[in-house]
Design brief:
The chain is about 65% helix and about 0% strand. The protein is mainly α. The chain is globular, with a radius of gyration of 20 Å.
Length: about 270
């Protein structure tokens, strides 16, 4: 009886693995950007951050075409010295950026690619203007920028409460931070697609660390977690600038979460010309 049960369990695991592989194959074909799109993007000039005002807290993307948001995203990686530091392949970066954009649902009015791009811009300007990019270090900055661009992947235009109330498939998969865990899963899937593996040049330890940063950062966009941990942030703020010890993992974690929340809500601080 036990032997038969073990055989059955083994067959179930094999079937689950096969379903996963089929899903990944489908994802590669339907959800990945094409090599032709990537080749086109690689040939485009990457404008300077100054010309785009990427370092400004008053930045707006209103006058940018979609293709401009892609080249601007790549510029952020360049100006934080991440492309050079980790030898990120330009062609792979271009295809990955295109794939990320493709996996935001255009019919969703707010949580779409433009929102993700703007969140990344607020993160970029915050890191540059504060000088915190130096304290956080390149791996953390790389993870934060990737997390910003991916933090709402495949958003359906509803919230976690709706997912739980309707007992949706996502709610059955993830009982806490439902949408955020789905966004994270989508981000990891894309990072493993052929032609989209931007982290291939990282060492094993760097790869493990950057994925950890991405996970923590995307989950931090769940506002229920922000309010639950608000006391930690208030206590850190009372210590003033001198209290920000980059060697203290807890303080770095608090700072990362605050940066993600601020970047996610940054659109509300932008000027609205009437």
């Amino acid at each position: 009886g036990i032997s038969l049960a073990n055989v059955s369990n083994y067959e179930q695991v094999k079937a689950a693995e096969a379903r996963k592989q089929v899903a990944l194959d489908i994802m590669t074909y339907h959800a990945s950007s094409s090599t032709e799109e990537a080749k086109f993007l690689t040939r485009l000039a990457i404008p300077s951050a100054l010309s785009l005002q990427l370092q400004s807290f008053s930045f707006t993307d209103v006058e940018l075409e979609d293709i401009d948001t892609l080249t601007a995203s790549i510029r952020m990686f360049h100006d934080l010295d991440l492309t050079k530091r980790f030898n990120l392949d330009h062609s792979t970066m271009c295809r990955w950026i295109l794939t990320v954009k493709k996996n935001y649902r255009p019919e969703v009015l707010y949580h779409n690619w433009r929102h993700a791009f703007n969140v990344a811009q607020v993160m970029f300007s915050s890191l540059v203007n504060s000088g915190w990019w130096e304290g956080l270090g390149p791996i953390t900055c790389l993870g934060l920028l990737v997390a910003c661009l991916c933090h709402d992947l495949d958003h359906r235009g509803t919230n976690n409460s709706y997912q739980m109330a309707t007992n949706s498939p996502l709610a059955k998969l993830y009982s806490t931070s439902t949408l955020e865990r789905h966004h994270l899963n989508q981000a990891l899937i894309i990072l493993n697609l052929d032609g989209n593996r931007i982290f291939d040049s990282l060492t094993p330890s760097e790869y493990t660390e950057v994925l950890s940063v991405i996970e923590e950062a995307i989950l931090a966009t769940d506002l229920s977690l922000h309010f639950a941990h608000l006391g930690r942030l208030k206590n850190l703020s009372k210590e003033g600038p001198g209290g920000l010890d980059w060697a203290n993992k807890e303080k770095v974690s608090i700072t990362m979460a605050a940066l993600m929340t601020a970047s996610d809500l940054g659109a509300t601080t932008k000027p609205w010309n009437i």
